[in-house]
Design goal:
The chain contains 14 helices and twelve strands. By secondary structure, the protein is of the alpha/beta class. Helix 3 packs parallel to helix 4. The longest helix has 20 residues.
Length: 385
């Protein structure tokens, strides 16, 4: 699509023209491993599906359009995309990252890439002085989540990008929680945007994938080299599923946000809840930044149940509308305890220092009726007390 459209239109049409030969409206699943060539080295745009596949091309074009970027690359998982960012670094390089990041991100940083002589500092990225103090001449990357997982802190992408660029470092933003419907980090100065397509962009808890989007052709070329060389590429069927998901992203996100706002307010007033972490609450320390940087506040929230660890565990085990499960961003509501599940790979002392307590409960607010969610949580609270 050559014209500029709003994101609701791009979600449905970008990268998805009807098939020229058949007129098929939906992008076909090109289940090919290889392609006929007109002569040795004379391919018609595709030669081998690890290198490129038409279904994947349509998805990558669609994702780039949603993020307002020029180049998109899809991967077999969100961790595959994060790994590819780290492939851009060299031995001796230094990374500054938030101290409240997804457990899998912390694990690949510390348990995989530290073995290759990369070094990592985890700091409070809402504190720009702390970030500035952590930056070194050898810093090549500042890794940002916003909102963060699971404490829902909001980071100033423009400010952090400027700090990174002062040291000629890349600023990479994991935009999984917000999605491009709510926040577009490239417009705020970020160099690369990372996604777990498994979450809101897929939206139905039936596909695993990842993506990187950038405006820099040199960065895209390097990302494409590692995408092909390492081979963490998604299947054509997985790409088809994500394309189906992106078509409904705007309407789903509107409902996720509506439900999360109502549920956060209800929890904030509940006597059984000690703290609620949701950027849509005016009490949230970065509420004004979130209102400026995001178009809405998202469908994720966390809260502290006012009781023992065992009581908090009972809460997550006694829900019916909320399913006790890892992951997020599907149409169904999910509930979990990060310390025992998604963030168990982070040493306990580091978790506690970052404010991630054993009793913290994270909620992915689905698109069911919010009154049913409230009744479900109330029944779980009653069972725990």
């Amino acid at each position: 699509m050559d014209e500029e459209f709003r994101i609701e239109t791009d979600a449905i049409h970008a990268g998805q023209e009807p098939d020229e030969e058949t007129g098929a409206l939906m992008t076909p699943i090109y289940a090919n491993s290889t392609y006929e060539q007109d002569g040795p080295g004379e391919d018609r745009g595709y030669e081998y599906s690890r290198t490129g596949n038409p279904t994947r091309t349509d998805l990558e074009t669609n994702l780039a359009a949603l993020e307002g970027g020029e180049f998109g690359r899809a991967f077999a998982s969100g961790m595959g995309s994060i790994n590819t960012v780290l492939n851009l670094l060299e031995s001796g390089d230094h990374v500054v990252a938030g101290d409240d990041v997804y457990g899998g991100t912390h694990r690949i940083f510390t348990q995989v890439y530290e073995e290759y002589d990369l070094s990592f500092d985890f700091v409070d990225t809402t504190d720009h002085d702390a970030v500035r103090d952590a930056l070194r001449p050898e810093t090549e990357l500042v890794w940002v989540e916003t909102p963060t997982n699971p404490l829902m802190q909001v980071n100033d992408v423009s400010g952090l990008s400027a700090l990174a660029h002062d040291y000629d470092a890349l600023c990479v933003v994991d935009n999984t929680f917000a999605t491009p419907y709510l926040q577009r980090p490239l417009e705020l100065g970020a160099d690369i945007v990372s996604h777990s397509l498994t979450k809101y962009l897929g939206g139905h808890s039936d596909v695993v994938g990842g993506a990187l989007v950038t405006n820099d052709p040199d960065l895209d070329e390097r990302i494409g080299f590692y995408q092909n060389s390492v081979g963490a590429t998604p299947s054509p069927f997985d790409c088809f599923l994500v394309l189906r998901g992106t078509k409904t992203l705007p309407v789903r996100m509107d409902r996720h946000c509506h439900n999360a706002r109502e549920l956060a307010a209800w929890l904030d007033d509940h006597e059984a809840v000690a703290d609620v972490y949701y950027p849509g609450l005016e009490s949230h320390p970065q509420h004004e930044l979130a209102a400026e940087q995001m178009d809405d506040f998202g469908g994720m929230l966390s809260f502290e149940f006012d009781g023992s660890l065992e009581q908090a565990s009972t809460v997550v085990e006694e829900t019916d509308v909320f399913t006790l499960a890892e992951s997020l961003g599907g149409v169904e509501s999910l509930i979990e305890q990060p310390a025992a599940m998604t963030h168990a790979a982070i040493p306990r002392e580091e978790r506690l220092a970052a404010g991630l307590t054993d009793g913290l409960i994270r909620v992915s607010v689905g698109i069911e009726h919010v009154d049913d969610m409230k009744r479900d949580l109330q029944a779980a609270f009653d069972a725990a007390q």
